[in-house]
Amino acid sequence: MLSSEEVIRRFESLRQAPRVGGGRAPHKPLLALYLLGRIQQSARAAGTPMVVPYASAEPVVSALITEFGPPGRDAHRAALPFFHLDRSVWMPEGDGLAPRHTVLRDRRAVGRFVPEVEDALRRAPALVVAIARRLLSANFPDSYAAPICEAVGLDVAAAPDEPADAPKRVRASEFRPRVLRAYDHACAFCGYDGMLCGESTLLSPVALAAAHVQWHALAGPDEVSNGLALCDLHHTLFDRGLLGIDVARRIVVSPAFSGRSEAAQRIVRDLNQRPLREPTTPCERVEEQFFGWHREQVFRAGTAA
Ligand SMILES: [Zn+2]
C-alpha cells in the first residue's frame, strides 16, 4: 500500500522544473489534472480500474493544451503526454504504441493509473485535491485554477490540509505593496484606481493586483522589475495571453481576443497600441527580459488554434 507522501512524490515528477529562460511545458500536468478530474468523478467501486481510452482523452486534453498551454498550433497535442506520462503513475496499454496521434488512435490505445496509485487516490479523496492543487500552483498563475478545474470537472474547494513538508516558495510579502506603490495604486493599462474607503483614513485598493510578468510558478522573481499593477480584468487577460506588451512598451491586444460588445471595445480593444503607464522611478519599471518571456510563453500573437 502506497503512502500519500509516496503518491505525492510520484506526481511531483510531473511538475515542470523551471527551465533555462522559464519555458513552459504544461502538457503532462494538464493530462494529469484531466485524469484526476476523471477519478474524482468516477463512482466505480475500488477494484475496478479506471480505463481511459486515448480516443476519449485526446480531444479534451488537446483542447486544454491549446487553451492553457503556450501559444502554438500543433493539433492532437495530447499524444505526447498520453504516451510519456511518468510510468510510476500511468500505464499506456496497446500493441506497438508510439507517441503519435495516428498510432494511439488507430491501435485504440487505453491508459490507466498504476494500480497502487489508483488504489491510494480512491482511498483518500483529499489526496486527489492535494495533488491537483500542487500541479496547478507549480505550473500556472492563480487565475488559471478555476477555468482549468471547470474544464476537467475537478473540485479543489474541499481543501485538505497540506502536508507540512510541502516545499513551497514563500512569496515575498513586500512584492504587492511595492508594486502597487510604484504604479501609484492604479492599473498600468487602464488607470483604474478603485479603493475601499472606510471611516478611518486608511484606503485599500480593491480589484487591483500586483501581477508577475514572468509567472511566479515559473521562476519569475518577486521584484518590482517583474511586477505590474493591474486591475482584475486586465490581470486575467494579461495572464491568459490576450493582452501583451510589445518591444516599444505599448499595450497589444491579441487577435485571439473576441468580444462583440461596446464594453469589450472600450475596456479592452481601445487599449491597443497605448503606451504602458510606467512608474516615475526608472528602476521600478519592468525589465525587458520579463516582457520578452511573456511575449514568448504567454501572449497569443495569432488567433486561437
Ligand atoms: Zn485595468
Explain what this protein looks like in three dimensions.
- The chain contains 12 helices and 9 strands.
- The protein is of the alpha+beta class and 305 residues long.
- The strands form 4 sheets. A 3-stranded antiparallel β-sheet has the order 1-3-2. A two-stranded antiparallel ribbon has the order 4-5. Strands 6-7 form a two-stranded antiparallel ribbon.
- The site of zinc ion has 7 residues, from β7.
What is this structure's SSE topology?
Blueprint: H1 4-12, H2 27-41, E1 52-53, H3 54-68, H4 79-84, E2 90-93, H5 101-106, E3 110-113, H6 115-123, H7 125-139, H8 145-152, H9 175-182, E4 195-197, E5 203-205, E6 208-212, E7 227-231, H10 232-239, E8 243-245, E9 251-253, H11 262-267, H12 288-297
Antiparallel strand pairs: 1-3, 2-3, 4-5, 6-7, 8-9
Helix pairs in contact: 1-7, 2-3, 2-7, 2-8, 6-7
The structure holds zinc ion.
Zinc ion is lined by residues 187, 189-190, 192, 230-231, 234.
Which terms would index this structure?
alpha+beta; single chain; 3-stranded antiparallel beta sheet; binds zinc ion
Mean pLDDT: 89
| Strand portion | 5-15%
Total strands: the figure is 9
Helix content: 25-40%
Number of domains: 2
Strand order of the largest sheet: 1-3-2
Q: Could you name the ranges where pLDDT drops below 50 across 5 or more consecutive residues?
A: none
Q: What is the first-to-last residue Cα distance?
A: 43 Å
Largest sheet: 3 strands, antiparallel
What binds here, in terms of ligands, is: zinc ion
> Any idea what the shape is?
globular
Give the number of helices.
Answer: 12
Structural class: alpha+beta
Q: Evaluate the radius of gyration.
A: 21 Å
